[in-house]
UniProtKB/TrEMBL annotation:
Region entry Disordered, spans: 324-343
SUPFAM superfamilies xref list: alpha/beta-Hydrolases
Limits of the Serine aminopeptidase S33 domain: 44-247
Record Pfam families: Hydrolase_4
Keywords in alphabetical order: Hydrolase
Gene3D superfamilies reported in the protein's UniProt record: alpha/beta hydrolase
Any GO MF annotation of the entry: hydrolase activity
Bias type Basic and acidic residues, positions: 327-343
InterPro entries: AB_hydrolase_fold, Hydrolase_4
Official protein name in the record: Alpha/beta hydrolase
Source species, domain of life: Bacteria
């Protein structure tokens, strides 16, 4: 059961509540839901899920949705941000399906407890992969659209990393030594391009989102690669999906300029290649000058991104009383949804 809501670190207009989840091998587990209520609600909601080595601090993004009447919810997944506890290995899981528990609880709160019948799923990077897989498995009746911000749809880097030998090695080591760290070259350029004390625009907790990212463990990467394989086999979501990416990636010598005008984390060609694997109605838009987290890009790029989302929502979801999903469809899909959850 969720604990009572309290004021969040983002300010008194943001409320936060913590969910207790079944413990794992490291001990107690929680997830955290942040909520921003609109001044003029129209009965719809957004659920946002963050990416790797990240947490929700995107107040501007939340207010953009709230200004349009959406109640905005953001989930800090287990072992991330507000949900990270001292006894835990940050972000460590061995199956992306482990996150389905907290997404289920958040969805129940949004749709059953708070009564929202139409929900837009929003997700960034690894969260985009997780949310797509969750939606494929759960198929909730209230899901009317998804907005994916630079979703992680494939392994970037040399071709051999995506080959059979690498896959077999990852499976073997991941099953035997899941907590083994993978040596990798890291840089703080992306973090410095974001944080206002290091050349960026944004203020956030560097304990929750370090400048140099987090260690990558073999068991966690195996879970991600299994998720990639499920996506590449083809999902079949019928809700409209918007996939946003930067126009270009850059993997050379990194500077603040390249970090703020390119995706220096993921390969945008892979994002666009696999976007159509999500479902039947996918719109893919490449934004010139965008960084990895599109809604943290420079102001003029963010303005373009918000305009794209706005026009896409108007076309596919509608505004006011107009809805993509009819009452009859809600009833039909609601029966399947209840069956999926068994309660």
């Amino acid at each position: 059961m969720p604990l009572p809501q309290q004021a969040d670190v983002l300010g008194p207009d943001f409320r936060v509540e913590t969910f207790s989840l079944p413990p794992d091998d490291e001990g107690p587990v929680v997830a955290t839901l942040v909520t921003l209520e609109p001044a003029r609600p129209h009965g719809r909601a957004v659920l946002h899920v963050h990416g790797f080595a990240d947490y929700f601090f995107h107040a501007e993004y939340a207010r953009w949705w709230a200004d349009r009447g959406y109640t905005f919810y953001a989930l800090d997944l287990r072992k991330y941000g507000r949900s990270l506890r001292d006894h835990q290995t940050p972000h460590f899981i061995t199956d992306l399906g482990e996150y389905f528990g907290e997404i289920d609880l958040a969805w129940w709160r949004i749709t059953q407890r708070d009564g929202h019948r139409e929900v837009v799923a929003s997700a960034h990077s690894t969260g985009g992969l997780t949310m797509s897989l969750w939606a494929q498995e759960r198929r909730p009746a209230e899901l009317v659209a998804m907005v994916l911000n630079s979703p992680w749809f494939d392994m970037q880097g040399p071709k051999w990393l995506r080959g059979r030998a690498a896959r077999v090695a990852l499976e073997r080591v991941g099953s035997r030594r899941p907590l083994q760290e993978i040596p990798r070259r890291t840089s703080d350029v992306y973090g410095r391009s974001l944080h206002r004390e290091h050349g960026g625009e944004w203020d956030y907790d560097l304990g929750w989102k370090p400048l140099e990212s987090r260690p990558v463990h073999v068991g966690w990467l195996r879970a991600v690669r299994r998720g990639h394989a499920r996506l590449h086999a083809g999902l079949d979501l019928d809700c409209p999906t918007l996939v946003l990416s930067s126009a270009r990636s850059f993997f050379g010598e990194q500077t603040l300029e390249t970090a703020t005008t390119h995706d220096i984390v993921l390969d945008v060609e892979q994002i666009r290649r696999w976007a159509s694997s999500v479902g039947r109605h996918v719109t893919s838009v490449a934004l010139e000058g965008a960084m990895h987290d599109i809604v943290l890009s420079r102001p003029e790029v963010r303005a373009t991104a918000y305009d794209v989302i706005d026009r896409w929502l108007a076309a596919w979801v509608g505004t006011g009383s107009t809805s993509l999903v009819s009452d009859e469809q809600h009833e039909q899909r609601g029966e399947a949804h209840d069956g999926d959850h068994g309660a």
